[in-house]
Write a structure and sequence with these properties.
The chain is mainly α. It has one domain. Helix content is 68%, strand content 0%. It contains 17 helices and no strands. Helix 3 packs across helix 10, helix 15 crosses helix 17 and helix 16 runs antiparallel to helix 17. The protein is globular and about 60 Å long. The two termini are 13 Å apart.
């Protein structure tokens, strides 16, 4: 996740895919900065949404529609992962590509376990030092404190997760099935997408889900969220090119704009109940609840509408993508695994400061901005180190793209 797009620029100039494959990889020699930009934006929005409500919360997209930053993050992750490892599968075969994917899955799993350990230590220290057990309860680690031996095993099995740690387990599961997804897309890309849609429909029809410890179910149901991941992979491997005429249609633009406008008015009724009389009773009964855990179709459609308008008005060649003002967002997107983990840590630190110090809206704003600045500084350090490491690797091994570099390299 932390940069499967790291090889987009280097890999895109490689030999073309065999004509017998259903996979159609994009051509070009420049990195797709729009992916980095919006993945970095998603990381910022996730961090802000993890903090207690404040002024910056009103700048996150979840307040103005059905979807939020999670949809952006999962779609782009599927897109970049499929681009990198799809090319690896075409050039090196199924077994080599699978080995590289499993290596990446292991890296993400280790990052999740490390983040889990640090997160528990952070919460436990704060709860003990300030004699406030509410921190442990609010962050969902009370079961760990009662039965640490059992809870650690459940955490290693991805069944126990404290608050704000649901995205990485979802991504681990989705990446584990990426070899099968790519194999199907190499055979028939549209069939692979169709099977994904069928699994999504079966999830809703038969209530498929994964259980969590000590009770409940996963906050992000992999049986449902796989649709967004597979759709991103399908777009990366030729689907977006095949849809180019549809995306450029004025009818598509009008439908997308109308849907976003309707979603905006609906969400306004959540914050101003006096507007509820404008909502027909039959419509409320049909659309509510809008289930995030199972990726409600209204959320998926809202994301599609946002993506259609974004692609229409933000072309790949937009000069602003190379502006120094957007550079922090792009750097965060290029190192998403590290920045996501840092964001989870900073979100609890900010939550603690706001709970212990009564500073009002001003302190909320300062903590939110400070967290974003720390994330940007960390992304700059990671980028600087990667440039130095790449220069050393070039001198010792020579230049050459390698699918093993997907997601940040070794």
């Amino acid at each position: 996740m932390a940069g499967e797009a790291d090889v987009l620029a280097r890999e895109s100039a490689a030999a073309p895919a065999p004509s017998v494959s259903a996979i159609l990889l994009p051509t070009g020699t420049e990195r797709e900065l729009r992916l980095d930009l919006f993945r970095g934006l998603a990381l910022w929005l996730i961090f802000i949404d993890h903090l207690p409500p404040n002024l910056l919360t009103w700048f996150t997209i979840r307040n103005y529609g059905f979807s939020d930053a999670t949809e952006i993050f999962i779609f782009i992750s599927g897109y970049t992962a499929a681009f990198v490892y799809g090319r690896a599968m075409l050039e090196s075969g199924f077994m080599i590509a699978t080995a590289r994917i499993m290596r990446r899955v292991w890296q993400i799993y280790v990052a999740h376990v490390f983040l889990f350990t640090i997160f528990l230590a952070e919460i436990s220290y704060v709860a003990t030092s300030f004699e406030n057990p509410l921190y442990s309860e609010e962050m969902g680690i009370m079961d760990f404190l009662k039965q640490p031996d059992v809870t650690i095993v459940q955490a290693l099995l991805l069944r126990f997760r404290p608050v704000n740690m649901d995205v990485l387990p979802l991504y681990i599961i989705l990446m584990s099935f990426l070899p099968l997804i790519l194999w199907l897309m190499k055979w028939r890309a549209d069939v692979a997408l169709g099977l994904s849609v069928m699994l999504y429909a079966a999830t809703w029809q038969f209530d498929l889900y994964l259980t969590a410890y000590p009770n409940g179910f996963w906050a992000f149901n992999p049986f449902a969220w796989q649709l967004l991941f597979v759709f991103g992979a399908w777009c990366a491997l030729g689907g977006a090119q095949r849809m180019s005429r549809i995306l450029s249609s004025r009818i598509t633009l009008a439908i997308a704009a109308a849907y976003l406008l309707a979603a905006f008015f609906v969400t306004m009724t959540w914050y101003w109940p006096q507007l509820n009389y404008l909502m027909p009773r039959w419509l409320e009964q049909w659309m509510y609840p809008i289930n995030k855990a199972d990726l409600d179709v209204l959320r998926f459609a809202h994301f599609l509408a946002l993506a259609a308008i974004t692609v229409r008005f933000l072309p790949r060649e937009w000069p602003g993508l190379k502006s120094r003002w957007l550079r922090p967002l792009i750097l965060c997107g290029q190192h998403s695994l590290e920045i996501f983990c840092l964001g989870v840590f900073l979100a609890f630190a900010g939550h603690f400061v706001l709970a212990e110090i009564s500073g009002g809206a001003g302190l909320h704003f300062i903590i939110s901005v400070s967290g974003i600045l720390i994330m940007c500084a960390a992304a700059w350090v990671f980028s600087w180190y990667k440039r130095v490491a790449d220069k050393n690797a070039t001198r010792t091994k020579g230049f050459g793209g390698n699918a093993d570099m997907a997601g940040g390299g070794a």
